[in-house]
Amino acid sequence: MLSFKGGPIDGKVRVRFAPSPTGSLHVGGARTHLFNWLYARHCNGVLINRIEDTDQERSKPEFERMVMDDIKTLGLEADESTDKGGGYGPYRQSERLEAYQTLAYKLLEDRKAYRCFCTQEEMDQKAQAAKAAGKPPHYDGTCTNIPKEESQRRADAGEEFSIRMIAPQKDYTLKDFVRGNVTFKQGMVGDFILLRTNGIPVYNFAVVIDDYFMNVSHVIRAEEHMPNTLRQMMVFEGLGWEFPIWAHISLVLGNDRKKLSKRHGAASVKEYIEQGYLPEALVNFLALLGWSPVDNKEIRPLNEIVDLFVLEKLTKSPAIFDTDKLTWMNKEYIKAMNIKELSTRIKPFVKRAGLDPNIKDEEWFELALDSVRGHIAKLSDIGDYLDIYYSDRFAFADDAKEIIASEDGKRVASAFKAELEACDGEPTAEWLKETQKKLKSLTGAKGKGLFFPLRACVTGRLQGPELTLALPILGKEEALRRVDLAIRQ
Ligand code: GLU
């Protein structure tokens, strides 16, 4: 009898994100982790991070560390994990081998699985032959009916074997939270290996045992795992365990509607952070890949997303990873962030651009940063805007040079120099506003004819922060030096 738990065991939602430690965290994995995190938080449940490291060749402890650190960087730590421990460990599959082996032997005892003595070479040949004959690559049954005693004798004699699950030949219907009822027709899979000759379980076997022992109520994972789910249903059933609730979340595609990959510029979480995306913006953006709030409002704080995050609002259709949208969101987050917080976060990028954030005091740095933050989309853009405040970086851009060389330009620069020299103390925004009025009547220049030469002299560029902001930040001495340079061009 197939059965679904139909709700959280003991009333408690327990979900998991189970990365394989074969590289740093990719944005697709981060999205799956996030959905599990959001659902756990929404339900006051528990999120588990389980490390699926049974692929001995590709799994590496340093990758596990990287993934765990990436999750921390996003501010989305799990409640139970290899780092935090918990009451349902071990949280690394390689530490649960005994349980997998015991249960594989139980299935063997119960005649739901059998020893398969075929070598890898033989299996490859059989698969090739099936393919050539246009048949599905199912196991051909060579070892299916080896009598129990013979099987035992061969094993005792030291012959190598794997343990293979008998795939029941009937239809299976998966009740998926996102996709509704999905029927897998009889014959879609053949008998499949549970335990390899070296005693290491395959993913589809280990996952079932972990999900059971970790008391997982909901399995929220990517749609590409659907074919695995069929095998996992067979294992759950074989072991006499109830199914968890499955929710297969939509695929993430690139702008060309092909599966998201590096080709689309989509990178790992670490790479995005290094490029200057804020974790908050990345998380907000990822939340919208396959989930949509009722009001369609896109930018909102994480606690609001938690409140609204229900599985009923997961979407079936593929989500598009639109980097331009992520960049736009990042810009909005930069604009809205508390200036002290932004100052702390952006300093490594300022240094990376070769600028010293401590040339003056913190108050000066925050003013300078605040004046340009509206122009940057990524933290790494900062150098190209903040450098106007650094005298050793100062140079006139070509278009600024042209303006300065014009008739209006020359007149405005000379008149402005005289005003600056006469300025009592440091120039303020008010002083500049008054001075602009004065310059208008003194030089006859107005509008852009006045504004551009001033900006060109002081900042060396035609774009950038308001001059009323920039001039007080630069100070009289530096401004005068620049105006002098402009006059001498
Ligand atoms: N280790 C699997 C992966 O990285 C997780 C599959 C699952 O969530 O069941 O894709």
How would you portray this structure in words?
This protein has 489 residues and is mostly helical. It has 4 domains: 97-249, 3-Layer(aba) Sandwich (Rossmann fold), CATH 3.40.50; 262-329, Glutamyl-tRNA Synthetase, domain 2, CATH 1.10.1160; 338-392, Helicase, Ruva Protein, domain 3, CATH 1.10.8; 394-487, Arc Repressor Mutant, subunit A (Orthogonal Bundle), CATH 1.10.10.350. It is built from 20 helices and 11 strands. The protein has helices at 27-42, 61-73, 97-109, 120-132, 148-156, 203-213, 226-239, 269-274, 279-287, 302-308, 323-336, 339-352, 362-372, 383-386, 398-405, 407-422, 429-443, 448-459, 467-474, 476-487, and strands at residues 14-17, 46-49, 113-116, 162-165, 172-176, 180-184, 192-195, 218-222, 245-249, 252-253, 319-320. A 3-stranded antiparallel β-sheet has the order 3-4-7. The chain has a two-stranded parallel ribbon with strand order 1-2. Strands 5-6 form a two-stranded antiparallel sheet. α6 (203-213) packs across α7, α9 crosses α11 and α15 packs across α18. The protein is elongated, with a radius of gyration of 32 Å. The structure holds glutamic acid. Glutamic acid is lined by residues 18-20, 52, 207, 221, 225. Residues 18-20, 52, 207, 221, 225 line the site of glutamic acid (GLU).
